[in-house]
Amino acid sequence: MTRLADHRVLIVNDDGIHAPGIQLLEKIVREHCKDVWVVAPDEEKSGASHSVSMHTPIRLRQLGDRHIAIKGSPTDCVLMALREIMQELPTLVLAGINRGGNLADEIHYSGTIAVAMEAALMGIPAIALSQVFERGKDVPWDTSERYLVSVVEQVLECGIADGSFVNINFPPVSADAVSGVQVVSMGRRPPGAFKTEGRVDNRQIPYYWVHLEPDAGGDLDGTDLRAMTDAAISVCPLQVDMTHRAMLSSLVGMRLSQG
Q1: Annotation-wise, does 169 bind a ligand?
Q2: What is the structure's pLDDT at 210?
């Protein structure tokens, strides 16, 4: 199946079920597909990564036909959709559209990426979608809106390997300024993208905020970061198997010893 129209689509995000990105994604998909489900967190869960709520109950709230808000993480949303909500499994999971990029090292913390990864673990094709924007400027949603269907259907035409998923980022430019599409690898930023900021409350007790403030650099050719610099849409295939093959070979021959 290569067209959105051929699929039963599950849409999940980490920005929350009322976020503009997921509303835009649903609008776009519904123009091409009749069988669409939206199952998303009831509030923002950015940075939740692949967390699962194992020690607190997960509660569901029906907001409308095939619209369910989940009191839990993005991964919880996928699990609940597949195990409790949908009578038939989806044939495609779309994560997003995230407000902001999921590039380079950021993918390890992203709830959007976790949605696609959980779907891949469950054997369902999945694509993560993010709209990059420049801080202090409007989010160029028109870029995602114009190109999303074409890029997604080209990915579906090529196929998504078992145990893999695809991470797509739309650049922080208007739709007319997009230079093209680049198939890329995951970039790497300089260390220390997350910063901590200490404050003191009115009882003189210290507390801290953690925020993402990546340093410039790391935009090598052929990476998702470079694609953003080039005003191109990045398409990055990822996999759930994180084995380092070269190191695996170098460690062969280890033996048991004492002392």
Answers
A1: no
A2: 86
- Edge to edge, the sheet with strand 126-131 lists 59-64, 67-71, 36-41, 9-12, 92-99, 126-131, 164-170, 232-239, 180-183
**How many Cα neighbours within 13 Å face the side chain of 187?**
27
Token pair listed for 150 = 């074409």
- pTM, entire model: 0.93
Q: Reply yes or no on whether the pLDDT at 132 is more than 70.
A: yes
Residue tagged 């398409």 (tokens): 235
Domain boundaries, the chain: 4-187+219-242
- The crossing angle, in degrees rounded to 10, of helices 141-158 and 20-30 is 50
The yes-or-no verdict on residue 2 having pLDDT over 90 is: no
Question: Does the annotation flag 174 for ligand binding?
Answer: no
3-state helix/strand/coil string of 53-83? CCCCCCEEEEEECCEEEEECCHHHHHHHHHH
The superfamily CATH assigns to domain 4-187+219-242 is Survival protein SurE-like phosphatase/nucleotidase (3.40.1210.10)
The string of pLDDT tens digits covering residues 190-236 is: 887 778 899 999 999 999 988 777 776 778 899 999 999 999 999 99
In 3-state terms, what secondary structure has residue 25?
helix
Number of other residues whose CB lies within 10 A of the CB of residue 217: 11
Query: Is 224 flagged in the annotation as binding?
Result: no
> For residue 218, which phi and psi values (nearest 5 degrees)?
80, 10
Is 107 within 8 Å of 186 (Cβ atoms)? yes
- What is the tens place of the pLDDT at every residue in 87-128? 999 999 999 999 999 999 999 999 999 999 999 999 999 999
Q: Is 65 annotated as a binding residue?
A: no
